[in-house]
Design goal:
Elements: E1 8-13, H1 18-31, E2 37-42, E3 52-53, H2 56-73, H3 79-84, E4 92-93, H4 96-109, H5 112-124, H6 133-142, H7 147-157, H8 160-176, E5 183-187, E6 194-197, H9 206-217
Parallel strand pairs: 1-2
Antiparallel strand pairs: 1-5, 3-4, 5-6
């Protein structure tokens, strides 16, 4: 074991990634560990040409994965999502707006992780359209973020700044040796190499994951 000072866990994710929702309890548990910083890196899984409207084919594709995630982890997929959103062919799946909201929440109040968690619940439990700016503004209000400050930060981070964030996240993903989302990598200190942490073995076991991480960091 190595003695570590102010380690950072780099979390490369996407708010529309089902397996990131599966890993959410693990990230939440890591976020409770003293002295550990979680740095959020949105990967832009569904942006640009990869954006899509929900279709029956998409519903048929994701539901088996969602059921598997629910069985493995206990993460809830609510009827607002399974019977509502996944049947709404006017709904657009776009990672950029919710990622911008996460960046804005972090900039305004250091609440990026709380915003990610709220977005995941809004999408997978409540079936809300998290690519719609009014929904994002409402979620920010639910978190207690100042309305004007969040709106201003969201506007300033929309577009090129968010695209730059995606590009940097993808570079980090390569550096960490990750294959996709979610990827978690430990960095002992700035400038030190990234050590990828395998999340799959811990899915559904947040307490055991936190204990193992604590041992690694001790």
């Amino acid at each position: 074991m190595t003695s570590m000072t102010n380690p950072t866990l780099h979390y490369i994710f996407d708010p529309l990634c089902g397996w990131c929702y599966a890993a959410a309890p693990l990230i939440a548990a890591a976020g409770q560990l003293p002295g550990v910083t979680i740095a959020l890196h949105g990967g832009g899984m569904m942006t640009g040409e990869r954006r899509k409207h929900i279709t029956p084919d998409w519903r048929g594709y994701v539901l088996p994965h969602d059921r598997r995630i629910e069985q493995m982890t206990g993460q809830v997929f609510g009827p607002g999502y399974t019977e509502g959103l996944l049947n709404d062919t006017t709904a657009l799946l776009d990672s950029a707006p919710p990622t911008t909201a996460i960046l804005a929440a972090e900039q305004v109040a250091g609440q990026g992780l709380a915003m990610l968690q709220r977005l995941q619940k809004a999408h997978y439990v409540e079936g809300r359209r998290i690519a719609d700016p009014p929904v994002l503004q409402a979620l920010a209000a639910e978190l207690g973020l100042p309305e004007a400050a969040f709106a201003q930060a969201y506007a300033s981070l929309t577009g090129a700044p968010t695209e730059a964030h995606f590009a940097e996240s993808r570079r980090l993903l390569v550096m960490a040796g990750g294959q996709g989302f979610p990827t978690l990598a430990l960095q002992v200190a700035p400038g030190q190499p990234l050590q990828r942490i395998e999340l799959g073995q811990w899915l559904g076991q947040p307490a055991a994951f936190a204990a193992a991480l604590t041992e690694t960091l001790s």
